[in-house]
Amino acid sequence: MAAPGRSNLDPAVLAGAESFARTWATAVIGSSYVPMTRAEVAEHLQALTEVLVHALHASPFRTAPGYEIGARLVEAHFTGTDTLGRTVQLLGDDLLGELGIAPDEVMRSRLAALQGALAAGYARALRERTLAEQEAIRAAVLDARDQAEAALRASEARFRAMFTEAAIGIGIADIEGRILDVNQALQDMLGFSVEEMRQYNIRDLMHPEDGSSVWRLYDQLTAGECDHYRAEKRFRRADGEQVWTHLTLSLVRDDHGDPQYQVAMIEDVTDRHLLQNRLRYQALHDPLTGLPNRALFLERLGRVFNNRNRRRAGLCYLDLDGFKVINDSLGHDIGDQLLVEVGRRLDHSVSGEGKLVARMGGDEFVILVEGSRDTQDIVNVADRVLRELESPIRIGGHELTVSASIGIVERALSGTTAADLMRDADITLYWAKADGKSRWALYDPDRNAKEVARFTLSATMPAALERDEFYVDYQPLVRLEDSTVVGVEALVRWQHPEFGRLAPDRFIELAEETGLIVPLGRWVLRRACEQGRRWLEEFGDAAPFVSVNLAVRQSRDPELVRDVKRILDECALPPHHLQLELTESAIMGTADEPLEALRALSDMGVRIAIDDFGTGYSNLAYLKHLPVHELKIAGSFMEGLRAADEEDPVDAQIVSTLVQLAHALQLGVTAEGVETPAQAKRLHRIGCDTGQGWFFAKPMKPESIDEMLRR
């Protein structure tokens, strides 16, 4: 219903209508939830007030506008329990006064009629709205029920289709394990009909080789402690064959959460299982010999250490001698056939419970003996293997003889690990090869400790040089005629933080092997030249020359001459105050090679000496061609001259001959290893120029040399 135009209302009446609308809005705003702002509520009620004003003055008078106003209040959601009462009361108390209308009988009668019509319209609209809402709710309930029933029917249809047509086996049982139903796939899988399966309890399907965990989990599921589990399980078919399956067992609970049914979903994985077994066999066995490979061996060795019934174990680590020669000369095909035959012989000779033969790779094999009693058990195995390999092997028209080196380790399992056992067997194998091959060697902890110490020294040597752990001692070279110190030999030492003071025999060979001998020798040369310069400054012409040993690799270093010249220049040491010592083997080994380095050093004024003369090549014919100034006769020839009462005539003759030869070549002679006064006198009588040894002094600090020189 549209309100008449506002232009028909007196301005004073219109102002009164606006005032009443605001009062009406204040009265009803708190009684209902209306989706309007306060201003929008006032505007809406003002329009209704104007309709009332026009209805009061209309001619003829009608109550229909009041009825419509009640309906519009409900339509605008003014439906609170107090809304209608407040509205009717407010109309009767304030409307005429706000509008400035005299409350005569006519106006009161019209207002009362409009109030009644408003209440009737409000009540009818509210009832129709309630009925509409109830009908909507009823329709929604019916629709929801229909949808639920349809969904249930569809769900049951889907379940039945899935249960019947599923490619995997499905079985349903009660909580006691009685089988209630199985689908066609499970019947085909196990070869039983539904009726036959219903005669079984789930526990009747236990396989004697089922893992204990399968049935432990089953007991937990039926007790309601878990809702599902998965497992690999075997079943017996009706024809006696076995089927490998992947089993998923789930628990169905009732409305109270108590276990009610169990549902099994069973997938036939027999083919996959056989394939996995085949792949596992291939992964754990050597494809050439068919023997277990390294992976299977290490797995078995790990189980030995986890087996509490095993207290001891032994290993034979075996490597064929000379296999590379056969492989390279006759071809890899012959080599492979040889390995196959060796593997067959090993497997044949070392068979029985608790023994395993495996190929580790290449021509290496290993034999594991579990539960050995003592070392002799493993030695017996090694002897049997060596005997088995003695007879020739005929391959492709070739008669091949093969031998093996074997490293043996046997020990108690407590206090060691599988890695320790393998490492020690590997080390012992190389001992057997180093000792001559075609034999076995027993693990020796003392020998291993020395090897470990050797490796440790080799690894720490570069850092030791940077940390100044090396130092130089000096041993006097004494003129036999008057006991004057004419020279000193520089001898490097290593003050190791763990092993203490180390003599050169502990690390020089390692330095040669690792190549560190070149920087180490350069360092010793510099230290010796620096010390030689200090003696020269203090003692002048009486200062001794310094003699420094050159290793083989140093003598072949292309930078040798340049290094020596630079160090002499930087230390301001005259070249004739430096003597370089090379072993006889080293200097004779270069006799047929260019000797420019030694000649350049000699031309520079540096003295060249042959150390330990008589223990190497002893190629006397080469001496006159070498740039040598001094021969140092090896101390082994001095032993026969040591006794106080008599001398060994053979040693005396050898030394005398060497001295005569050296003097004939205008070379000086130094006797090494002088330990007694008798030796010193005899050597002087024979003609040696200088002597060196503990009789004169042991290697000492530079300060002690200072005291000798001052005396």
TrEMBL record:
Where do the EAL domain residues begin and end? 454-711
Q: Which PROSITE patterns match?
A: EAL, GGDEF, PAC, PAS
- Which stretches make up the PAS domain? 155-225
> Mind telling me which SUPFAM superfamilies this protein's record contains?
EAL domain-like (SSF141868), Nucleotide cyclase (SSF55073), PYP-like sensor domain (PAS domain) (SSF55785)
Pfam families of this UniProt entry? EAL, GGDEF, PAS_9
Q: Which residues form the GGDEF domain?
A: 311-445
- Stretches assigned to the PAC domain: 229-281
- Annotated NCBIfam families: GGDEF, sensory_box
- What is this protein's record name? Putative diguanylate cyclase/phosphodiesterase with PAS/PAC sensor domain(S)
Q: Which organism is it from?
A: Saccharothrix espanaensis (strain ATCC 51144 / DSM 44229 / JCM 9112 / NBRC 15066 / NRRL 15764)
